[in-house]
Amino acid sequence: MSAVPPPRKKPAPRGHTLATIPPAWARPLGNPPPTSAPRRRHVWAITAALVELWRSRHAITGAPGLGPRPADPDDAAGWDDLDARIRALTARRRPVHLPPPDAPASVVIEAALSHLDAPPPGGLLPDHPALRDPLGIAPQSYAALDARLARRALAAVLAGEPLPEPWMEEITAPGEDDEDEQRAYTRLLTAISDYRRRHHRAGPDVLGPRPAGLDGEEWDHLTDAIDLYIHARVQRRLEQIRARTTAERAALLPPTSPLHP
């Protein structure tokens, strides 16, 4: 008869042990909250236990906290998830990599797409990457439905027809001849639709009020994505105006004029 494996230790009890005497690697998590704040201390304890598990599975010994971000996409997703929890503990907002103020619209659009490619996790799910069995399968999501709704919105806005949902009116329409803008527009609407569905948002307000905790970090992430996309759209319009002005000036001035471009 095969031996029965010992039960897996739950994160919370182990985390409370770490909170009693925090190890040196836990410095990025900040000081454990006092026992007089049991809810905050419990969140710290769970996070510490998950970080310890991450360090054990990835053989992190020298660096504090999570260590360097892995290159493997699945491991990187788990690292991002735990990193978001640590930032929530220490009230540090996720850094946003902004392009230079004078960057062309194409660069800003790429920045918006890259930003959308790295969303912060909303919370600790049963299939948390740090706890997931390597052979486990993540639960199916509604991503396909959200993407379909975004494609419907793009087709409607390009055809001058009403958008599927009122909140979409708040997102600037992409250019008719700019595929990158259209791609960013659909990606942005897909991410917002997913957020609204999970947080039970209704009405014309795009994201609604900022929630607390890890959900607030997701709200920040989407707000930054909207700002990047709108900035790119405005920059593209300015570029088009400058190009049209230059062309009109060139048509009016004789070739020998010093003002001719």
Overall pLDDT: 79
The number of distinct helices, counting runs of at least 4 residues, comes to: 7
Kindly report how far apart the N and C termini lie: 87 Å
Element pattern in H and E: HHHHHHH
What is the helix fraction of residues, given as a range? 40-55%
What structural class should be given to the helix and strand makeup?
mainly alpha
Largest sheet: none
Strand content range = under 5%
What is the 3D form?
elongated
The Rg value, from CA coordinates, equals 24 Å
Poorly predicted regions are 1-9, 123-140
Query: What kind of oligomer do you see?
Result: single chain
Number of strands: 0
Question: How would you describe what is shown here?
Answer:
There is one protein chain. With 261 residues, this protein is mostly helical. The protein has helices at 11-20, 38-57, 73-90, 105-116, 143-159, 179-198, 214-252. Helix 4 packs antiparallel against helix 7, helix 5 (143-159) crosses helix 6 and helix 6 runs antiparallel to helix 7 (214-252). Mean pLDDT is 79; it is low at 1-9 and 123-140.
Task: Supply the key terms.
261 residues; 7 helices; elongated; disordered N terminus
Question: What does the secondary structure layout of this molecule look like, with pairings?
Answer:
Layout: H1 11-20, H2 38-57, H3 73-90, H4 105-116, H5 143-159, H6 179-198, H7 214-252
Helix pairs in contact: 1-2, 2-3, 4-6, 4-7, 5-6, 6-7
